[in-house]
Design brief:
Layout lengths: L1 H19 L22 E5 L9 E4 L1 E5 L10 E3 L1 E2 L2 E2 L1 E7 L5 E10 L8 E8 L2 E8 L11 E8 L4 E8 L9 E10 L5 H19 L1
Antiparallel strand pairs: 1-3, 2-7, 3-4, 4-13, 5-6, 7-12, 8-11, 8-13, 9-10, 9-12
Helix pairs in contact: 1-2
């Protein structure tokens, strides 16, 4: 009987893991879709107001996409300091009011201009924000030193806009680099936890009856 209970419990745990696996709410989180990157320059500038980078809109200054840098997903990376100056991008997606969402992304920086090594960016959504920084010291475009970052916000509307805005202006062309951006709802401990609790309670009662 106890072995059977363990099997049920294991199944419930698998359900819980499956419930946490959700699709990315963003379109083109790795920036692979959009205008082709021209060769031999290996970069493409996007000006303010541009929507040519599929799913995204340039909202400040300009940005560059590049395919000559080490990427973490696919071949394209975004430098948030365009040609030239600090830039920013945004994307809107459906959300549920009061629900928590987790933003994950990979962060590095344009490795030129290492005499001013610290690159900075602000991530914003639902009236909330967090600042992030990356030190490019010792990194190259072939070895970017990517760091995975995460940040959570609580939705206040049925549509939320996520923004990445460069806050680095000391060098005109060299900003933070981002890749592999995702947004997922943080699952509430509902069905799986209730099932596990019921199984444990049943096992305790059965053992008491013996």
């Amino acid at each position: 009987m106890f072995g059977r209970m363990k099997s049920v419990l294991f199944g419930a745990l698998l359900c819980g893991v499956a419930a946490k696996t959700e699709a990315n709410l963003l379109t083109n989180g790795s920036f692979e879709l959009g205008l082709a990157i021209p060769s031999p320059d290996h970069y493409l500038p996007y000006s303010i107001g541009s929507t040519d980078l599929t799913g995204w809109k340039v909202i400040v200054g300009g940005i560059d996409t590049l395919d000559a840098w080490q990427a973490t997903d696919g071949i394209v990376v975004v430098d948030l300091n365009g040609s030239p100056g600090p830039g920013g991008i945004e994307q809107s997606f459906a959300t549920t009011i009061g629900l928590e969402y987790k933003v994950t992304f990979d962060l590095a920086g344009n490795t030129s201009g290492q005499f001013v090594p610290l690159r900075t960016v602000r991530v914003l959504a639902a009236g909330q924000f967090q600042d992030f920084s990356f030190d490019v010291t010792g990194h190259t475009m072939a070895s970017m030193g990517w760091e995975n970052k995460e940040w959570s916000f609580t939705a206040i509307s049925t549509v939320t806009t996520l923004q990445f805005v460069s806050t680095f202006s000391r060098l005109p062309f060299e900003g933070v680099a981002i890749d592999n951006v995702a947004v997922n709802a943080v699952p509430e401990p509902t069905a799986a936890v209730l099932v596990i609790g019921a199984v444990v309670s049943s096992a305790v009662l059965l053992r008491r009856k013996k």
